[in-house]
């Protein structure tokens, strides 16, 4: 991940709230450790943001296929994580969130390296209070820390997050990890489910989602998100506009990204960020990203930005309204800013047609997911 709280060392720089570990528990799983080794994982420096070029196709990007030894280790670590969850009485949903998080942070490998001093399954940092290197490299300890609870170290884990069962999986992971790039976890759901199936883990089991939490617990609602509108045909509060046929000379990425990623963007993109911040009350956004895994994206070209709305807009009227305002402003100003296309709320808008059409993931993303369908952020690409 990208913050001091969980560091995500294999993925990039960090910022945000420092959090600590919780105490070791579920010692019955220690025996499983006898054949699980600390191994390297070649995740490189990739950072995963939900940003998609227009296109078609029904496939999506999943984690690279793992060879037999790697998959055996992943299954073993998944069993350890789930054993901790079962011992605590947590539902299968908690295990799934943890597996998706670990796949993003370490490839579900107990790595002894990472960004700065990050180590372990969840890339937790000793300097941020997660524990000693030796403690963090105990997967049972790391899982206990991720799930949270009252024992020291004390900052919140999953059970300490109010209403996490009603969040999407990636939102719940982000609530614990507090990544500066919050859309990193969604793409790992299918792989996490496959590994869980191989490990004999019941991801549908019931349980107390706040098991181990001290103090009052929130009222437990449905274990899955509800009231999600998956339709792409409804217009909502979006405008369409007319085709925009301006001439936009090619530009190279030569300006430091004003959103702080450390990369370069085109002057046109930098100008759009400045105008968007002034017109939209400075919404959180991120532009440049390496996207090694998706080189066709406009992000590594410095020609795209993601503007975040604060959650899954299918379940949040304020988030939906915020995204509509961002998209509508981008359309209304496209003739002077050079916006090429937008992706928002399961639809894609093109300056060439001036119309919204259903977005199917572009052959890269799962359009039913909050991030893949662009329900939690507006993607803006410029010429």
The Cα radius of gyration reads 21 Å
Instruction: Give the count of structural domains.
Output: 2
Helix residue percentage: 25-40%
Mean pLDDT: 78
Shape: elongated
Number of helices: 9
Q: What pattern of helices and strands is seen along the backbone?
A: HHHHHHEEHEEHHEEEE
Major β-sheet strand ordering? 3-4-8-5-6-7
Number of strand elements: 8
Tell me the strand percentage band. 5-15%
Your description of this structure?
By secondary structure, the chain is α+β, with helices and mostly antiparallel strands. The chain folds into two domains: 27-199, no CATH class; 255-382, no CATH class. It contains nine helices and eight strands. The strands form two sheets. It has a six-stranded antiparallel beta sheet. It is elongated, with a radius of gyration of 21 Å. The relative contact order is 0.16.
Task: Note the main attributes of this structure.
about 375 residues; alpha+beta; 2 domains; two-stranded antiparallel ribbon
């Amino acid at each position: 991940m990208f913050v001091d709280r969980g560091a995500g060392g294999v993925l990039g720089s960090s910022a945000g709230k420092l959090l600590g570990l919780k105490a070791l528990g579920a010692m019955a799983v220690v025996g499983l450790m006898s054949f699980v080794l600390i191994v390297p994982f070649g995740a490189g420096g990739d950072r995963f943001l939900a940003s998609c070029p227009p296109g078609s196709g029904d496939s999506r990007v999943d984690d690279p296929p793992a060879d037999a030894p790697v998959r055996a280790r992943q299954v073993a670590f998944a069993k350890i994580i789930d054993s901790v969850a079962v011992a605590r009485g947590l539902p299968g949903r908690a295990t799934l969130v943890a597996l998706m998080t670990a796949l993003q942070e370490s490839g579900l490998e107990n790595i002894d390296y990472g960004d700065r001093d990050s180590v372990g399954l969840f890339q937790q940092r000793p300097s941020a209070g997660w524990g000693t290197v030796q403690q963090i490299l105990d997967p049972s300890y790391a899982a206990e820390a991720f799930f949270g609870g009252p024992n020291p170290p004390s900052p919140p884990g999953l059970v300490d997050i109010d209403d996490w069962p009603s969040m999407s999986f990636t939102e719940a992971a982000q609530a614990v990890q507090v990544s500066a790039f919050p859309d990193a976890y969604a793409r790992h759901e299918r792989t996490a489910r496959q590994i869980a199936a191989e490990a004999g883990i019941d991801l549908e089991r019931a349980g107390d989602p706040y098991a181990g939490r001290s103090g009052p617990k929130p009222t437990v609602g449905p274990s899955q998100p509800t009231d999600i509108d998956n339709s792409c045909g409804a217009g909502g509060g979006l405008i369409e506009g007319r085709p925009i046929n301006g001439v936009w000379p090619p530009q190279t990425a030569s300006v430091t990204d004003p959103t702080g990623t450390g990369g370069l963007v085109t002057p046109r993109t930098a100008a759009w960020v400045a105008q968007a911040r002034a017109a939209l009350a400075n919404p959180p956004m991120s532009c440049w990203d390496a996207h090694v895994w998706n080189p066709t994206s406009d992000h590594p070209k410095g020609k795209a930005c993601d503007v975040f709305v604060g959650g899954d807009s299918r379940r949040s009227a304020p988030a939906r309204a915020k995204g509509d305002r961002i998209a509508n402003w981008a359309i209304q100003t496209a003739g002077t800013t050079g916006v090429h296309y937008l992706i928002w709320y399961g639809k894609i808008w093109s300056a060439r047609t001036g119309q919204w059409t259903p977005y199917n993931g572009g052959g890269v993303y799962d359009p039913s997911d909050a991030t893949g369908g662009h329900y939690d952020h507006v993607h803006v690409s410029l010429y």
